[in-house]
Amino acid sequence: MTTRPKKAEQNLIADARLVASATRRNLDDILRADARREEKLLTVERLARFESRIEALAAIADGGIAGLALQAQATVSEASRRELLFQLLSDVRAEINVTYKRNRAIRRAFGGGFKLKQNSTPSLLQLGTAVLNAWKDPEMRQAAERAGIDEARIQRIEEQVAALATADTGQGTAVNQGRIRTLSKQQLLREVRSETSYLREVAGVVFRRNDLVLKEFASTQPRRAPKPRPDSSGPSKGDEGQKMPPERPSQDAKAEKVASPEGVAQG
Fold first, then answer.
1. Between 235 and 41, residue with greater pLDDT
2. Cβ distance 182 to 67 under 8 Å?
3. What per-residue confidence (pLDDT) applies to 250?
4. pLDDT for 188
5. Hey, is 178 helix, strand or coil?
6. Cα–Cα distance measured from residue 25 to residue 27, given in angstroms and rounded to the nearest whole number
């Protein structure tokens, strides 16, 4: 029997997807800002993990499932990483090939003539490593820069090579050992809520002077109306039924009594 997801969970998932999409759209700018930092605010791997957690939570909330096997998520993650790395490598290779049609050495250093397969993790890792090694060579790096390839693009290739290698190892371990790790619904709720908040903080730092981009990260969750406060003008519950103490005469009243004839006679 399935259960309908709670409204609060639906709102959280929608809000998290909005933040993930905004982060993905502005990822290049975030990574460029991060390049100057020793401690990185965000990595491609962290964003991909966040996106997989959102979809895992959505699957649990929609189906009322007690837990979701992350082996399937690892497969999806590896496929998306392959696609991104394939695009990055293809672009670099195409620009090198068109710039250095008469220089076979430079073309081969950046993967020219190599049969690149989009759905082959070993093939992508092999070419990605070759491109990174070519970039370390001063002459090849200068040649690549003349073709319009910069440090930021090479950094993204490096990140994707590392991420794809990790995803490949993780999936192989799960298949070989037959371990299916699951995350509970409460764990996912905590992770998604925390990461959504964190990415908004990152956006606030990177785009603090860009209101247009910050609007993309604005929360969609409905705000709770504050509870009305009790009226403080009336008596409180503790005061009901209690007698008020007798009012003591003021100093002015005492003075009037002494000044009166009766008060003088008594004196």
1. 41
2. yes
3. 56
4. 86
5. coil
6. 6
Q: Which residues pair with 183 in a beta bridge?
A: 68
Give the Cα separation of 215 and 211 in Å (integer): 6
Whole-angstrom Cα distance, residue 178 to residue 158?
A: 30
Query: Exposed, middle or buried, 75 (CB in 10 Å: 0-12/13-18/19+)?
Result: middle
pLDDT over threshold 90, residue 103: yes
- Report CA dihedral (129, 135, 140, 146) to the nearest 10 degrees: 120
End-to-end alpha-carbon separation of the chain, Å?
95
d(CA 204, CA 217): 9
Which residues make Cβ contacts (< 8 Å) with residue 29, sequence separation at least 6?
206, 207
Establish how many alpha carbons lie within 13 A of residue 152's alpha carbon, considering only the half-sphere containing its beta carbon: 11
- Name the burial class of residue 1, with classes exposed (0-12), middle (13-18) and buried (19+) by CB atoms within 10 angstroms of its CB: exposed
d(CA 30, CA 188): 25
> How many CB atoms are located within 10 Å of the residue 157 CB?
22
| Cβ count within 10 A of residue 19 | 25
Of 64, 58, 54, 60, the closest CA to residue 24 belongs to: 54
Give the list of residues 6+ apart from residue 98 with CB closer than 8 angstroms, or none.
none
Mean pLDDT of 34-56: 87
State the number of CA atoms in the 13 A half-sphere of 93 facing the CB.
Answer: 21
